[in-house]
């Protein structure tokens, strides 16, 4: 029996004995709470804003249709400040104090990796909607409570390497990686992708999130004959790579994970931000059709500050969160319960769902906790502050 069930077994007899207000219990059942732990401040705040918007639009739709299990859904948010320790504390509070049914994660892989053991130990579903580190869902737990509607590093790395070969005839790439568990996850993925093609690499360089000069690392890669850069970092450090390349006057293709999409990259990187090509799972376009047009209309109605496509950057956070919330609603309905083990089985029971990114067919199983795969990736870059798909 899980910890949460023990707590409830202790709690309910007290209520029956009149020691806990039955009115309070009734009020607690008025809404079904879901939680979000994400970067809501700092350089990556736009990622948290995008996730919030995607969850909110989906929740509005769900509530307008009667809610989940007859209860209206309420979103509770906590700022992790891109700090694993703060993220873990926030997760504990939302699960233990606020009793959220499901917890959604944010941009940063290190934060999600800090929460994963807690989720599996306490048997609460943890749904990733951005962080792409492979070990988040491939965590080795016998009973895995971590699901994801997002990219997966190992699959992204395959796509980035193939893109470099197809678009730039890349033969000797250099890796420039943020020095944290996300960078480590992608180093493994890049090595595997390159080795499977009998390709070598010019070198592997690491840098810190607060570095303002990456010229030494880039110079070593240049001297080693790198003909392209495979980059993994979030907004601010990615921008420093571009600025360091400008100082070196080195015009080399930069093929990136989706870190630059999480905030003010085009503003921070300067006029050459558009040279960085990065992967996404979704992007809004001009003359949007179908569900994308419907979601865009709802975004504009809910958030008056949204006027153009540039105002919904990064769209990937919106789309991943929107689809993840609807899939979660289906899982809880199938479970007929807000207990973690039942919701986990509910995810496995989803047959089909027409989402924003794609139409999902049996997106989850005991052996597959990632709903999005390489066929769902698109390559993009920044143009005038907007994330725009690349035309080949």
UniProtKB/TrEMBL annotation:
Keywords tagged on the record: Amino-acid transport, Signal, Transport
Record protein name field: ABC transporter substrate-binding protein
Listed InterPro entries: BCAA_transport, Leu-bd, Leu_Ile_Val-bd, Peripla_BP_I
Domain of life: Bacteria
Residue ranges of every copy of the Leucine-binding protein domain listed in the record: 31-358
Keyword Transport in record: yes
Alphabetized PANTHER family for the sequence: LEUCINE-SPECIFIC-BINDING PROTEIN, PERIPLASMIC BINDING PROTEIN OF ABC TRANSPORTER FOR NATURAL AMINO ACIDS
Species this protein is from: Marinobacter lacisalsi
Assigned protein family: Belongs to the leucine-binding protein family.
Species classification: Bacteria, Pseudomonadati, Pseudomonadota, Gammaproteobacteria, Pseudomonadales
Signal peptide range in chain numbering: 1-28
SUPFAM superfamilies attached to this UniProt entry: Periplasmic binding protein-like I
